[in-house]
Amino acid sequence: MAEGDVTLDTSDVDKWVGKPVIFAEFWDPCNATDIRRWVQAMDYANPLHWDEQFARSSKFGGIVAPQSFTVAMDYGHGCHPSCVGKIPGSHLIFAGEEWWFYGNPVRPGDKLTQERSFAGYKVTDTAFAGPTMFADGDTVHRNQHGALVAKERATSIRYLVDEAAKRKVYDKGNVPPKLWTQSELEEVAKLRLQWIKSNREGISPRFGDVQVGDKLPRRVIGPHSRVTFALECRAHRQNIWGTWRWNVPEGTYDPATEDAGFGEDMTYDFEARKIDPRHGDGLFHGPSSGHINAEKGEKVGMGGVYGYGSSMNAWHVDTIAYWAGHDGYIWHSKTQFRSPAFEGDVTYIDCEVIDKQETSPFGMPVVTVQSKMTTQEGATILKGTATVSLPV
After folding, report:
1. Rounded Cα–Cα distance for residues 235 and 66 (Å)
2. Which segments of the protein form a coiled coil according to its record (predicted)?
3. Is the dihedral of CA 382, 165, 93, 87 positive or negative?
C-alpha cells in the first residue's frame, strides 16, 4: 500500500488472515497477589480486589479480579494476534479494544487459556504516518473448567517508523513533561480521593433510578511517569520472568517468534533470553521498551516515553465497574484510542449514561455508559462505551 513514494509492504501479512496464531500460555494459575499488583498499577483502589478482610465480607467471599484483569491473564497485552507478518521498518501502537464478558469472574487459582486468530486489516492514510495499517486480532479466553470468560478484539496500528518520526505528530521533543506545582498536585489528590470514596462500599444503583444524562463521579489518574509506566508493564503477568511458554501444537507454524519488521533495538532476542531474562520481559528490550526509554520512544515517532493502551482500556472498564458496584456487571465494552498518555500528563475520566434498554441481547435490562478521557489541557485521548446490567 503506497502514498506517493511512501510504501507500507503488507504482502507478508495477507497469508495469516483468518488463521489461528500466537500459541503461548502461562505456566501457573493466578493468585491474589497478581490481582493486587494489577489494581495497584492501574490505581484502582476498589477494596474488593486487594483488601482480603473487605472482600471476605462481600458477596464474593474473597478477593476477586476486576474484569479489566482478563488482559493480564494473556500473553501480549491483548494485541499480539493483531501483529503478525513482517512489515519492514514498522512499529506498533494500540488503537482500541472491544470486549464481551460472560459472567464468569477470574478468581485466585484460575488459569485461563486462549484461542487467538488474526481477523484482518485495512490500510488508511493518516496524518500520523501516511499509509497506516489498522489490524484486528481476536482472543477467546476460557478458564480451567472450559467456561467462557471473555472474548476480545484488539485493534493495533502498524506504521512506518521513519514516516512517523518525520511528521512528528506526537513530538514532545521541544515540550518537556509538565512539572506540577504542589497546589496542583493537591487538587489532583483531592479529586482522586473523592472518586475513591464515591462508591467504596460497592453499592449498585438501581436500573429504575438511573436516567439518561446521569454523570458518573469524575476520576483522575496521574501524573503519569516512567515509574507508573514501569509498574503498569510489570502488572502484566507475562512481563514477570519465566511466567509463560510457547505451546505450539505439533505440525502447526506460529509466526509469533518471527521478525515483525521492527527496528533492531526494538525486538526481542529469544535466544539471549534463555540466559538473561531481561531480553524477554518487554521493559528493557522489545517493542514495548519505548514506554520508559525516551530515546526509543522518539525513534518510533512518539516523541518520548508514553503509556500503554491496555492500561487506558482498564481505566475505562474499572471506572464504570466501580460505579456499577458489586451487583453490576459489564457485558460489553468498546474503546477507541486517540493518543497515548504521555509522561507528565494526568488523565481525567468523565462518564455519562447515554442509553437505557428494558430488554437487551443480554437478556436483562442494561444501561450504556459513555466514557471520555482527556488531559489537563483538554485533549481527548480515549472515547469508549460499556453496556452494564444493574439490579432492578
Report:
1. 13
2. none
3. positive
Distance CA 170, CA 342 (A): 10
86-104 burial: b if 16+ Cβ within 10 Å, else e: bbeebbbbbbbbbbbbeee
Buried-state track 134-153, b at ≥16 Cβ within 10 A, e below 16:
bbbbbbbbbbeeeeebbbbb
The CA distances from residue 125 to 2, 90, 258, in Å, are 9, 15, 27
165 pLDDT above the threshold of 90: no
Task: State the CB neighbour count (10 A cutoff) for residue 252.
Answer: 10
3-state SS class at 124: strand
Q: Please check whether residue 353 is in contact with residue 369, taking contact to mean a CB–CB distance below 8 angstroms.
A: yes
> How far apart are alpha carbons 268 and 257 in whole angstroms?
9
Q: How many helices (H) and strands (E) does the chain have?
A: 8, 13
Cα 351 from chain centroid (whole Å): 18
Cα three-residue angle 179-183-184, rounded to 5 degrees: 50
DSSP structural state of residue 70 = G
Each residue's pLDDT tens digit, 250-305: 988 888 878 788 877 778 888 898 999 998 888 888 888 889 898 888 888 888 89
pLDDT tens digit sequence for 55-78: 999 999 999 999 999 999 999 888
SS3 266: helix
83 contacts 260 by C-beta, under 8 angstroms: yes
Contact between 119 and 140 (Cβ < 8 Å): no
Report the interhelical angle of 182-198 vs 309-324 (nearest 10°).
Answer: 50
The amino acid present at 90, given as its one-letter code, is S
3-class secondary-structure state, position 97: strand
Q: Which of 88, 32, 83, 42 is nearest to 62 (CA)?
A: 32
Which 8-state DSSP code applies to residue 27? S
CA 44 to chain centre: 14
